[in-house]
Protein backbone atom coordinates (compact mmCIF):
# COMPACT_ATOMS: atom_id res chain seq x y z
CA UNK A 1 0.00 0.00 0.00
CA UNK A 2 2.79 2.41 0.91
CA UNK A 3 4.68 1.69 -2.32
CA UNK A 4 1.52 2.32 -4.32
CA UNK A 5 0.94 5.62 -2.53
CA UNK A 6 4.37 6.97 -3.45
CA UNK A 7 4.08 5.57 -6.99
CA UNK A 8 0.87 7.52 -7.47
CA UNK A 9 2.45 10.69 -6.11
CA UNK A 10 5.34 10.31 -8.54
CA UNK A 11 2.97 10.61 -11.52
CA UNK A 12 3.09 14.11 -13.07
CA UNK A 13 0.19 16.31 -12.00
CA UNK A 14 -1.26 16.66 -15.50
CA UNK A 15 -1.47 12.85 -15.76
CA UNK A 16 -3.11 12.29 -12.37
CA UNK A 17 -6.47 10.50 -12.50
CA UNK A 18 -6.91 9.70 -8.81
CA UNK A 19 -8.93 11.89 -6.47
CA UNK A 20 -9.45 11.39 -2.73
CA UNK A 21 -11.43 13.27 -0.11
CA UNK A 22 -10.47 14.08 3.46
CA UNK A 23 -12.85 15.31 6.14
CA UNK A 24 -10.18 17.31 7.96
CA UNK A 25 -10.26 20.04 10.63
CA UNK A 26 -13.86 19.32 11.70
CA UNK A 27 -14.64 21.44 14.78
CA UNK A 28 -15.60 19.09 17.62
CA UNK A 29 -17.07 22.01 19.53
CA UNK A 30 -19.77 22.30 16.88
CA UNK A 31 -20.00 18.74 15.56
CA UNK A 32 -19.17 16.54 18.53
CA UNK A 33 -16.08 14.75 19.78
CA UNK A 34 -15.22 11.08 19.75
CA UNK A 35 -14.50 11.45 23.48
CA UNK A 36 -17.27 11.92 26.07
CA UNK A 37 -17.41 15.50 27.32
CA UNK A 38 -19.01 17.20 30.33
CA UNK A 39 -20.38 20.23 28.49
CA UNK A 40 -22.91 20.91 31.25
CA UNK A 41 -24.21 19.45 34.54
CA UNK A 42 -27.11 17.88 32.64
CA UNK A 43 -24.72 16.21 30.22
CA UNK A 44 -22.62 14.92 33.09
CA UNK A 45 -25.66 13.37 34.78
CA UNK A 46 -26.67 11.59 31.59
CA UNK A 47 -23.32 9.88 31.17
CA UNK A 48 -23.02 6.36 32.46
CA UNK A 49 -20.44 5.74 35.15
CA UNK A 50 -17.94 4.24 32.70
CA UNK A 51 -18.27 7.14 30.28
CA UNK A 52 -17.97 9.57 33.17
CA UNK A 53 -14.52 8.18 33.91
CA UNK A 54 -13.46 8.74 30.30
CA UNK A 55 -14.97 12.22 30.29
CA UNK A 56 -12.70 13.20 33.19
CA UNK A 57 -9.59 11.33 32.05
CA UNK A 58 -6.42 13.32 31.39
CA UNK A 59 -5.95 11.55 28.03
CA UNK A 60 -9.35 12.75 26.83
CA UNK A 61 -8.33 15.29 24.18
CA UNK A 62 -11.05 17.68 25.34
CA UNK A 63 -9.20 17.95 28.67
CA UNK A 64 -5.55 17.78 27.63
CA UNK A 65 -4.91 21.43 26.62
CA UNK A 66 -6.04 22.68 30.04
CA UNK A 67 -4.38 20.09 32.25
CA UNK A 68 -2.06 21.26 35.07
CA UNK A 69 1.31 21.88 33.47
CA UNK A 70 -0.11 22.96 30.12
CA UNK A 71 0.37 26.70 29.65
CA UNK A 72 -2.66 26.80 27.33
CA UNK A 73 -4.91 26.65 30.40
CA UNK A 74 -4.02 30.32 30.88
CA UNK A 75 -5.49 31.42 27.55
CA UNK A 76 -8.84 33.18 27.82
CA UNK A 77 -10.32 31.76 24.62
CA UNK A 78 -11.02 28.28 23.28
CA UNK A 79 -9.12 28.28 19.99
CA UNK A 80 -10.46 25.75 17.49
CA UNK A 81 -7.90 23.11 16.59
CA UNK A 82 -5.64 24.25 19.42
CA UNK A 83 -7.77 24.21 22.57
CA UNK A 84 -10.77 22.49 20.97
CA UNK A 85 -9.92 19.21 19.18
CA UNK A 86 -10.48 18.70 15.48
CA UNK A 87 -11.95 15.52 14.05
CA UNK A 88 -10.59 13.84 10.90
CA UNK A 89 -12.48 11.38 8.68
CA UNK A 90 -10.00 9.82 6.27
CA UNK A 91 -10.16 7.52 3.27
CA UNK A 92 -7.45 5.52 1.54
CA UNK A 93 -4.55 7.79 0.50
CA UNK A 94 -6.06 10.99 1.95
CA UNK A 95 -3.01 12.95 3.05
CA UNK A 96 -1.73 15.40 5.63
CA UNK A 97 1.26 17.17 4.05
CA UNK A 98 4.53 18.19 5.68
CA UNK A 99 4.04 20.80 8.39
CA UNK A 100 4.74 21.83 11.96
CA UNK A 101 1.98 22.82 14.37
CA UNK A 102 0.79 26.40 14.79
CA UNK A 103 3.18 28.27 17.09
CA UNK A 104 5.34 25.12 17.21
CA UNK A 105 2.95 23.53 19.71
CA UNK A 106 3.07 19.93 20.83
CA UNK A 107 0.21 17.89 19.36
CA UNK A 108 -1.59 14.67 20.18
CA UNK A 109 -3.53 12.61 17.66
CA UNK A 110 -5.79 9.72 18.68
CA UNK A 111 -7.12 7.18 16.18
CA UNK A 112 -10.64 6.25 17.26
CA UNK A 113 -11.35 3.54 14.69
CA UNK A 114 -10.77 2.27 11.17
CA UNK A 115 -7.68 1.70 9.07
CA UNK A 116 -4.20 2.73 10.27
CA UNK A 117 -2.40 5.95 9.42
CA UNK A 118 1.17 5.99 8.14
CA UNK A 119 3.17 8.81 9.73
CA UNK A 120 6.54 10.30 8.81
CA UNK A 121 8.46 12.50 11.23
CA UNK A 122 11.57 14.66 11.20
CA UNK A 123 13.40 15.65 14.43
CA UNK A 124 13.05 19.28 15.46
CA UNK A 125 16.84 19.69 15.20
CA UNK A 126 16.51 19.13 11.44
CA UNK A 127 13.62 21.57 10.84
CA UNK A 128 15.79 24.21 9.16
CA UNK A 129 17.49 21.57 7.01
CA UNK A 130 14.04 20.36 5.99
CA UNK A 131 12.97 23.86 4.96
CA UNK A 132 16.16 24.45 2.96
CA UNK A 133 15.67 21.11 1.22
CA UNK A 134 12.06 21.93 0.34
CA UNK A 135 13.21 25.17 -1.27
CA UNK A 136 16.00 23.41 -3.17
CA UNK A 137 13.60 20.79 -4.53
CA UNK A 138 10.93 23.26 -5.67
CA UNK A 139 12.62 26.64 -6.19
CA UNK A 140 10.01 27.79 -8.70
CA UNK A 141 7.18 27.27 -6.20
CA UNK A 142 8.97 28.98 -3.31
CA UNK A 143 9.92 31.83 -5.64
CA UNK A 144 6.27 32.76 -6.04
CA UNK A 145 5.15 31.58 -2.57
CA UNK A 146 7.94 32.10 -0.01
CA UNK A 147 5.71 30.78 2.78
CA UNK A 148 4.85 27.55 0.97
CA UNK A 149 6.22 25.44 3.83
CA UNK A 150 3.50 26.92 6.06
CA UNK A 151 0.59 26.07 3.76
CA UNK A 152 0.27 22.27 4.33
CA UNK A 153 0.23 21.58 0.59
CA UNK A 154 3.69 20.08 -0.05
CA UNK A 155 4.58 16.38 0.07
CA UNK A 156 8.06 14.90 -0.43
CA UNK A 157 8.87 11.21 -0.11
CA UNK A 158 11.12 10.01 2.74
CA UNK A 159 13.47 8.60 0.09
CA UNK A 160 13.92 12.01 -1.55
CA UNK A 161 14.46 13.76 1.76
CA UNK A 162 17.00 11.20 2.97
CA UNK A 163 18.93 11.63 -0.28
CA UNK A 164 19.31 15.28 0.72
CA UNK A 165 20.48 14.44 4.24
CA UNK A 166 17.17 14.95 6.06
CA UNK A 167 16.53 12.23 8.69
CA UNK A 168 13.02 10.80 8.34
CA UNK A 169 11.33 8.29 10.64
CA UNK A 170 8.17 6.26 10.12
CA UNK A 171 5.35 5.08 12.40
CA UNK A 172 2.14 3.14 11.91
CA UNK A 173 -0.75 4.64 13.86
CA UNK A 174 -3.38 2.04 14.75
CA UNK A 175 -6.81 2.40 16.42
CA UNK A 176 -6.78 3.18 20.15
CA UNK A 177 -3.25 4.60 19.91
CA UNK A 178 -1.88 8.11 20.41
CA UNK A 179 0.78 9.84 18.33
CA UNK A 180 2.56 12.81 19.95
CA UNK A 181 4.54 15.34 17.91
CA UNK A 182 7.07 17.72 19.43
CA UNK A 183 7.66 21.45 18.81
CA UNK A 184 9.08 22.29 15.37
CA UNK A 185 9.10 18.61 14.35
CA UNK A 186 7.89 18.33 10.77
CA UNK A 187 5.43 15.51 10.20
CA UNK A 188 3.24 14.19 7.39
CA UNK A 189 1.43 11.03 6.39
CA UNK A 190 -1.55 9.35 4.80
CA UNK A 191 -4.52 7.19 5.73
CA UNK A 192 -4.52 3.50 4.81
CA UNK A 193 -8.31 3.40 4.46
CA UNK A 194 -11.46 4.77 6.05
CA UNK A 195 -10.84 5.92 9.62
CA UNK A 196 -11.74 8.48 12.25
CA UNK A 197 -9.14 10.39 14.26
CA UNK A 198 -9.03 13.38 16.58
CA UNK A 199 -6.20 15.79 17.41
CA UNK A 200 -5.44 18.72 19.68
CA UNK A 201 -2.47 20.83 20.78
CA UNK A 202 -0.86 21.34 24.17
CA UNK A 203 2.18 23.19 25.47
CA UNK A 204 4.30 22.87 28.59
CA UNK A 205 6.60 25.61 29.89
CA UNK A 206 9.55 24.19 27.95
CA UNK A 207 7.65 25.11 24.76
CA UNK A 208 8.14 28.87 25.34
CA UNK A 209 11.37 29.29 23.29
CA UNK A 210 9.82 27.25 20.46
CA UNK A 211 6.78 29.52 20.50
CA UNK A 212 9.01 32.60 20.36
CA UNK A 213 10.89 31.07 17.42
CA UNK A 214 7.64 30.56 15.52
CA UNK A 215 6.78 34.26 15.95
CA UNK A 216 10.00 35.30 14.26
CA UNK A 217 8.95 33.27 11.23
CA UNK A 218 5.41 34.59 11.37
CA UNK A 219 6.79 38.12 11.33
CA UNK A 220 9.07 37.32 8.39
CA UNK A 221 6.26 35.80 6.31
CA UNK A 222 3.44 38.06 7.59
CA UNK A 223 1.46 35.10 8.92
CA UNK A 224 -1.41 35.71 11.32
CA UNK A 225 -0.74 34.29 14.80
CA UNK A 226 -3.36 32.16 16.49
CA UNK A 227 -3.04 33.99 19.82
CA UNK A 228 -0.89 36.62 21.54
CA UNK A 229 2.37 35.06 22.77
CA UNK A 230 3.45 38.14 24.78
CA UNK A 231 0.18 38.17 26.70
CA UNK A 232 0.62 34.51 27.63
CA UNK A 233 4.19 35.10 28.87
CA UNK A 234 3.00 37.98 31.07
CA UNK A 235 0.18 35.84 32.47
CA UNK A 236 2.56 32.98 33.23
CA UNK A 237 4.99 35.35 34.94
CA UNK A 238 2.22 36.61 37.21
CA UNK A 239 0.55 33.27 38.01
CA UNK A 240 3.09 30.43 37.96
CA UNK A 241 5.52 32.09 40.37
CA UNK A 242 2.98 32.22 43.19
CA UNK A 243 1.55 28.77 42.59
CA UNK A 244 1.95 25.87 44.97
CA UNK A 245 3.14 23.64 42.11
CA UNK A 246 6.06 25.96 41.26
CA UNK A 247 8.48 24.24 38.85
CA UNK A 248 12.01 25.46 39.60
CA UNK A 249 13.76 23.93 36.59
CA UNK A 250 11.23 25.02 33.96
CA UNK A 251 10.90 28.49 35.45
CA UNK A 252 14.66 29.05 35.52
CA UNK A 253 15.31 27.54 32.09
CA UNK A 254 12.32 28.79 30.10
CA UNK A 255 10.03 31.32 31.81
CA UNK A 256 12.78 33.58 33.21
CA UNK A 257 14.54 33.97 29.81
CA UNK A 258 11.16 34.64 28.14
CA UNK A 259 10.38 37.53 30.51
CA UNK A 260 13.95 38.84 30.21
CA UNK A 261 13.48 38.92 26.42
CA UNK A 262 10.18 40.78 26.82
CA UNK A 263 11.88 43.46 28.90
CA UNK A 264 14.79 43.71 26.46
CA UNK A 265 12.40 44.17 23.52
CA UNK A 266 10.35 46.68 25.51
CA UNK A 267 13.39 48.82 26.28
CA UNK A 268 14.56 48.67 22.65
CA UNK A 269 11.14 49.88 21.45
CA UNK A 270 11.18 52.68 24.02
CA UNK A 271 14.74 53.66 23.10
CA UNK A 272 13.89 53.75 19.39
CA UNK A 273 10.93 56.04 20.04
CA UNK A 274 12.96 58.30 22.36
CA UNK A 275 15.80 58.55 19.83
CA UNK A 276 13.52 59.54 16.96
CA UNK A 277 13.69 63.21 18.05
CA UNK A 278 10.06 63.62 17.12
CA UNK A 279 7.04 65.14 18.82
CA UNK A 280 5.37 61.76 19.07
CA UNK A 281 2.45 61.63 21.47
CA UNK A 282 2.46 59.05 24.26
CA UNK A 283 -0.53 57.30 25.78
CA UNK A 284 -1.22 54.35 28.08
CA UNK A 285 -3.76 51.94 26.66
CA UNK A 286 -5.55 48.67 27.32
CA UNK A 287 -6.63 47.90 23.75
CA UNK A 288 -6.80 44.20 22.97
CA UNK A 289 -5.99 42.73 19.61
CA UNK A 290 -3.86 45.48 18.05
CA UNK A 291 -1.79 44.01 15.23
CA UNK A 292 0.90 45.50 13.03
CA UNK A 293 -0.50 46.33 9.59
CA UNK A 294 2.72 45.09 7.96
CA UNK A 295 3.71 41.82 9.65
CA UNK A 296 0.26 41.02 11.19
CA UNK A 297 1.76 40.30 14.63
CA UNK A 298 0.13 41.31 17.90
CA UNK A 299 1.39 44.51 19.53
CA UNK A 300 0.48 43.64 23.10
CA UNK A 301 2.92 45.68 25.18
CA UNK A 302 3.73 48.53 22.80
CA UNK A 303 2.67 49.95 19.46
CA UNK A 304 2.81 53.09 17.39
CA UNK A 305 -0.45 54.28 15.80
CA UNK A 306 -0.91 56.83 13.01
CA UNK A 307 -3.95 59.01 13.72
CA UNK A 308 -4.11 60.29 10.15
CA UNK A 309 -3.65 57.41 7.70
CA UNK A 310 -6.12 54.62 7.11
CA UNK A 311 -4.72 51.08 7.27
CA UNK A 312 -3.72 49.42 3.98
CA UNK A 313 -6.33 47.46 2.06
CA UNK A 314 -6.43 43.87 3.22
CA UNK A 315 -5.13 44.60 6.73
CA UNK A 316 -7.00 43.64 9.88
CA UNK A 317 -8.96 46.91 9.97
CA UNK A 318 -9.00 49.40 12.82
CA UNK A 319 -6.21 51.96 13.22
CA UNK A 320 -2.91 51.96 11.36
CA UNK A 321 -0.66 50.14 13.84
CA UNK A 322 3.06 49.46 13.66
CA UNK A 323 5.42 47.24 15.65
CA UNK A 324 9.01 48.14 16.55
CA UNK A 325 10.32 46.99 13.19
CA UNK A 326 7.62 48.37 10.92
CA UNK A 327 6.15 51.53 12.45
CA UNK A 328 8.48 53.93 10.55
CA UNK A 329 7.06 52.66 7.23
CA UNK A 330 3.55 51.63 8.30
CA UNK A 331 1.71 54.43 6.48
CA UNK A 332 1.93 56.92 3.62
CA UNK A 333 2.41 60.09 5.64
CA UNK A 334 5.37 58.84 7.69
CA UNK A 335 4.98 61.94 9.85
CA UNK A 336 5.82 61.32 13.53
CA UNK A 337 3.62 64.27 14.48
CA UNK A 338 0.66 62.05 13.56
CA UNK A 339 2.03 59.11 15.54
CA UNK A 340 0.98 58.04 19.03
CA UNK A 341 3.20 55.69 21.03
CA UNK A 342 0.97 53.33 23.03
CA UNK A 343 2.12 51.17 25.90
CA UNK A 344 0.28 48.74 28.15
CA UNK A 345 2.67 48.62 31.12
CA UNK A 346 5.56 50.71 32.34
CA UNK A 347 8.95 49.02 32.14
CA UNK A 348 8.82 48.88 35.94
CA UNK A 349 5.96 46.37 35.72
CA UNK A 350 8.09 43.95 33.70
CA UNK A 351 11.03 44.55 36.02
CA UNK A 352 8.77 43.65 38.94
CA UNK A 353 7.79 40.39 37.21
CA UNK A 354 11.46 39.54 36.79
CA UNK A 355 12.24 40.40 40.39
CA UNK A 356 9.42 38.18 41.66
CA UNK A 357 10.63 35.26 39.54
CA UNK A 358 14.23 35.66 40.69
CA UNK A 359 13.18 35.99 44.33
CA UNK A 360 11.17 32.78 44.11
CA UNK A 361 14.08 30.96 42.46
CA UNK A 362 16.50 32.26 45.09
CA UNK A 363 14.10 31.17 47.82
CA UNK A 364 14.10 27.62 46.45
CA UNK A 365 17.90 27.63 46.21
CA UNK A 366 18.21 28.82 49.82
CA UNK A 367 15.76 26.18 51.00
Automatic annotation (TrEMBL):
<keyword id="KW-0479">Metal-binding</keyword>
<dbReference type="GO" id="GO:0010468">
    <property type="term" value="P:regulation of gene expression"/>
</dbReference>
<feature type="domain" description="JmjC">
    <location>
        <begin position="53"/>
        <end position="219"/>
    </location>
</feature>
<dbReference type="GO" id="GO:0000785">
    <property type="term" value="C:chromatin"/>
</dbReference>
<keyword id="KW-0175">Coiled coil</keyword>
<dbReference type="Pfam" id="PF21323">
    <property type="entry name" value="KDM5_C-hel"/>
</dbReference>
<dbReference type="InterPro" id="IPR003347">
    <property type="entry name" value="JmjC_dom"/>
</dbReference>
<dbReference type="InterPro" id="IPR048615">
    <property type="entry name" value="KDM5_C-hel"/>
</dbReference>
<protein>
    <recommendedName>
        <fullName>JmjC domain-containing protein</fullName>
    </recommendedName>
</protein>
<dbReference type="GO" id="GO:0141052">
    <property type="term" value="F:histone H3 demethylase activity"/>
</dbReference>
<dbReference type="GO" id="GO:0046872">
    <property type="term" value="F:metal ion binding"/>
</dbReference>
<dbReference type="Pfam" id="PF02928">
    <property type="entry name" value="zf-C5HC2"/>
</dbReference>
<feature type="coiled-coil region">
    <location>
        <begin position="259"/>
        <end position="286"/>
    </location>
</feature>
<dbReference type="Pfam" id="PF02373">
    <property type="entry name" value="JmjC"/>
</dbReference>
<dbReference type="GO" id="GO:0005634">
    <property type="term" value="C:nucleus"/>
</dbReference>
<dbReference type="GO" id="GO:0006338">
    <property type="term" value="P:chromatin remodeling"/>
</dbReference>
<dbReference type="GO" id="GO:0032452">
    <property type="term" value="F:histone demethylase activity"/>
</dbReference>
<keyword id="KW-0408">Iron</keyword>
<dbReference type="InterPro" id="IPR004198">
    <property type="entry name" value="Znf_C5HC2"/>
</dbReference>
Amino acid sequence: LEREYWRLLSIPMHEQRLEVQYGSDVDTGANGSGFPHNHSPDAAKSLEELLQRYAQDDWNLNNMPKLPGSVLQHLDEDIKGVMVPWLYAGMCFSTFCWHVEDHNFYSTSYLHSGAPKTWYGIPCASAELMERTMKELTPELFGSQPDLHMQLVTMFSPKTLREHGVPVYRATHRPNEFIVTFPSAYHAGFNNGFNCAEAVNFATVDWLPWGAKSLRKYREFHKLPVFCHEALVCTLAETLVDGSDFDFEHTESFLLPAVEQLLQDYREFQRRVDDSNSEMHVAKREDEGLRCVTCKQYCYLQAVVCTRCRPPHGSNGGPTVGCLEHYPTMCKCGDPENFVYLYRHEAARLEEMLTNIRNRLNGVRAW
